[in-house]
TrEMBL record:
One of its GO terms (biological process) is glucan catabolic process. Residues 89-300 form the Glycoside hydrolase family 3 C-terminal domain. Keywords: Glycosidase, Hydrolase. One of its GO terms (molecular function) is beta-glucosidase activity. Coiled coil: none annotated. The keyword Kinase does not apply. This is Glycoside hydrolase family 3 C-terminal domain-containing protein. Residues 3-52 form the Glycoside hydrolase family 3 N-terminal domain. Signal peptide: none annotated.
Length: 303
């Protein structure tokens, strides 16, 4: 009840509570009836809400105009979304010390491995607040191109793309001589709001083991699909190239556009990338500012 009082008196006019709204209504009604929250504060909130609705014309035309619904998902829109993906990706590492850069990847390799939970999953690419509120995994609820599909379209006709979602150490021992390189796509499952709260900010399993097993056997580019920076420092020694792909949405081919050099990496970090959660909060200008990657960091490649 205290949180209800504090939020309303702080000036929040509209409350969104999906599940326990009846309890909220009961608490708010009690607080108003006993005078803890004055009725004038409720009138103030309702007045502002109604003013916005009247301004928008919702009482005259309460329903959306569906006449343009057929325009959704047109190719020109997908092309624009794909361009947004290309411009938002951030290249964090490209080559181990003393070695040549891994990216851009050669299109005409013999056999390449694509691995990881996020390589072929549109729902994971989209994240929360998209297909559903909390998001959902899978490829059957929306239309688009997964990162795996983008890779298959990008490589030459003679290149064999082998996909294994969770290759273990035994698989890699048996096949490491077979692969020219690997692309590992891992990250977070979808979430929204407090459902994504995470005090560790680690890459969910089996992502870490896939990185270790694959990148310990063959040169690899790791693509991280997430809504925020995650702990990656423990894996940096094994990774040849690291790409922060954020949540690229339905147009996974925007990722392959950069991996294979059709376009160059230009994205920069919009926030500091920490080494460990013990450093948080961390901001530019802090006395002990020691990030893994600083604000504004981002390697560039040429198309």
């Amino acid at each position: 009840m205290l949180s209800v009082k504090l939020s309303i008196m702080a000036g929040i006019d509209m409350i969104m509570i999906p599940y326990t709204y009846t309890e909220f209504i009961d608490d708010l009604s009690t607080l108003v009836k006993n005078g803890t929250i004055p009725m004038s504060r409720i009138n103030d909130a309702v007045r502002r809400i109604l003013r916005v609705k009247f301004t928008m014309g919702l009482f005259e035309n309460p329903y959306a105009d569906n006449s343009l619904a057929g325009e959704l998902g047109k190719q020109e829109h997908r092309d624009l979304a794909r361009e947004a993906v290309r411009k938002s990706l951030v290249l964090l590492k490209n080559g181990k010390p003393g070695e040549k850069p891994l990216l851009p990847l050669p299109k005409n390799a013999g056999t390449i491995l694509v691995a990881g939970s996020h390589a072929h999953n549109l729902g994971y690419q989209c994240g929360g607040w998209t297909i559903t509120w909390q998001g959902v995994g899978g490829n059957n609820l929306t239309t688009g191109t997964t990162i795996l599909e983008g890779i298959k379209r990008a490589v030459g006709h003679g290149t064999d793309v082998v996909y294994s979602e969770n290759p273990d150490a035994g698989f890699m021992r048996q096949n490491e001589a077979r692969f020219d390189y690997a692309v590992v796509v891992v990250g977070e499952p979808p979430y929204a709001e407090s459902f994504g709260d995470n005090h560790n900010l680690t890459i969910p399993a089996p992502g870490p083991s896939v990185i270790r097993d694959v990148c310990g056997s063959v040169r690899c580019a790791v693509v991280l699909v997430s809504g925020r920076p995650l702990v990656v420092e423990p894996y940096m020694g094994a990774i040849d190239a690291l790409v922060a792909a954020w949540l690229p949405g339905t147009e996974g081919q925007g990722v392959s556009d950069l991996l294979f050099g059709d376009y160059g990496f230009t994205g920069k970090l919009a926030r500091t990338w920490f080494r460990s959660v013990e450093q948080l909060p961390m901001n530019v200008g802090d006395a002990r500012y020691d990030p893994l990657f600083p604000f504004g960091f981002g390697l560039q490649t040429r198309a």
